[in-house]
From TrEMBL:
Reaction equations catalysed: ATP + protein L-histidine = ADP + protein N-phospho-L-histidine
Lineage: Bacteria, Bacillati, Bacillota, Clostridia, Eubacteriales
Domain Histidine kinase: 195-409
Protein name: histidine kinase
Organism of this sequence: Caproicibacter fermentans
TM ranges: 12-32, 104-127
Subcellular localization(s) per the UniProt record: Membrane
A Gene Ontology molecular function term of the record: phosphoprotein phosphatase activity
Gene3D superfamilies: 1.10.287.130, Histidine kinase-like ATPase, C-terminal domain
Keywords in alphabetical order: Kinase, Membrane, Phosphoprotein, Transferase, Transmembrane, Transmembrane helix, Two-component regulatory system
């Protein structure tokens, strides 16, 4: 009887019980009234019969004996049959019975009509409330179909109907989440295309200009050599930009499956800096590695080394000649911390909360290398493996990036 948990149905059920009790009470009352009517009819009939016998000079004792007699020896029934009074005699020929029938029919009809009207009123009230509830639900479901999820279906009561409303609400929530996910996916694609278009404009314009200069001076080897080098640099920048954007896009879209297996931290660091040591020597900068070689980190070697390499490259970009970048790591009971510290120019307080944004370039770093994607990519890689990447910096004194990874229990 799950429907009784619903307030509206419960009220209607109680009303039906009350109505049934009233109907039973009226039935009992009607029986008493009909019994009284039969008694009055019998007394009236006996009175008429006694009066007739008295007029015929019949002794009162004989009449009293006849009236009080409750047994019929058969002679009375035979006499009544001779007079035309049998079980088949029509009621209309029996005035007393006919009057009782009319009274009884009128009483029963009146009570039945009254109770039918009461029952119809109760049903109409119940159905009107239910129709109003259905109307509210229909209105909300129509709003759901139009993308409006600001309100919910009625869910304040228990019962089968409200369970259905709850299921529809859950479906609407799923549709809303799906719609939001699709909208975010479209916005993500639009923003990615916009970023790529915007970032490619400058190197493409430069390539076009370099090509025009080379075409205008085909007989000048020095000019051709100079702008060929610039063309090569612009192409490398474009390749770096496109590769970084594609990697970030794949990470954001969740299409990268990290292959997390135990690796020595020293192996991760070595792979990260293998292409940066030559540059450090050329720029007279030092990369110092300091940590227990045996410490292990569960991660994706390729992606994690790229994240570390991007941070080291950023440190090289912002460290002057003679500076150093120190890479160290330590284990705590629950995590491994890998720190990359430099003594470079540092990060201004107004920039430190924005450095992980895509293409963000501080006004103080316009003359440095890079396109502003390395740190954003590093953060996506680290957080994609369940780690965290944080930064601390003092302007003109240096910066420390900290990568934290939970250890396997």
């Amino acid at each position: 009887m799950n429907f009784l948990k619903e307030k509206l149905s419960r009220h209607f059920f109680v009303e039906i019980i009350i109505f049934s009790a009233l109907l039973l009470g009226f039935g009992v009352l009607l029986c008493f009234r009909q019994t009284e009517a039969v008694k009055e009819m019998m007394l009236a009939h006996d009175g008429v019969m006694v009066s007739s016998l008295l007029k015929q000079k019949i002794s009162p004792d004989v009449i009293a004996s006849a009236v009080s007699n409750t047994q019929d020896g058969g002679q009375g029934k035979e006499l009544l049959a001779q007079l035309g009074y049998t079980e088949k005699t029509a009621v209309r020929f029996l005035p007393a019975v006919s009057g009782f029938e009319a009274t009884a029919f009128q009483s029963v009809l009146s009570c039945t009509l009254a109770f039918i009207i009461i029952l119809l009123v109760l049903c109409c009230i119940f159905l009107t409330k239910r129709e109003r509830l259905y109307g509210q639900a229909s209105k909300r479901i129509s709003a759901f179909s139009e993308g409006d999820f600001s309100e919910h279906l009625p869910r304040s009561e228990e019962g089968t109907l409200y369970q259905l409303f709850a299921s529809v609400d859950n479906l609407a929530s799923a549709l809303q989440a799906k719609g939001e996910a699709e909208y975010k996916a479209k916005e993500f694609l639009k923003n990615t295309i916009s970023d790529i278009s915007h970032q490619l404009k400058t190197p493409l314009a430069a390539l076009s200009m370099y090509n025009e200069i080379i075409l205008e001076e085909p007989d000048n080897p020095e000019t051709i050599t100079e702008f060929s080098k610039k063309t090569t640099a612009a192409l490398e920048r474009m390749e770096q930009l496109i590769q970084s954007l594609l990697k970030i896009t794949r990470l954001d879209a969740g299409s990268i499956m990290f292959e997390k297996v135990p690796h020595q931290v020293s192996e991760v660091v070595e792979k990260a800096i293998e292409n940066l040591t030559t540059r450090a020597v050329r720029e007279e900068k030092q990369i110092i590695v300091n940590g227990q070689p045996s410490e292990q980190l569960t991660c994706d070697l390729q992606w994690t080394s790229e994240a570390v390499g991007n941070i080291v490259k950023n440190a090289l970009d912002h460290t002057n000649s003679g500076g150093h970048i120190r890479i160290s790591w330590e284990r705590s009971p629950i995590m491994i911390r890998l720190k990359i510290t430099d003594n470079g120019t540092g990060i201004a307080p107004e920039d430190i909360h924005h450095i992980f944004k895509r293409f963000y370039r501080s006004k103080n770093s316009k003359d440095t290398q890079g396109v502003g994607l390395g740190l954003s990519l590093a953060k996506s890689i680290v957080e994609g493996q369940g780690g965290t990447l944080s930064v601390q910096s003092v302007l003109n004194r240096g910066t420390t990036f900290t990568l934290c990874f939970l250890t396997e229990l």
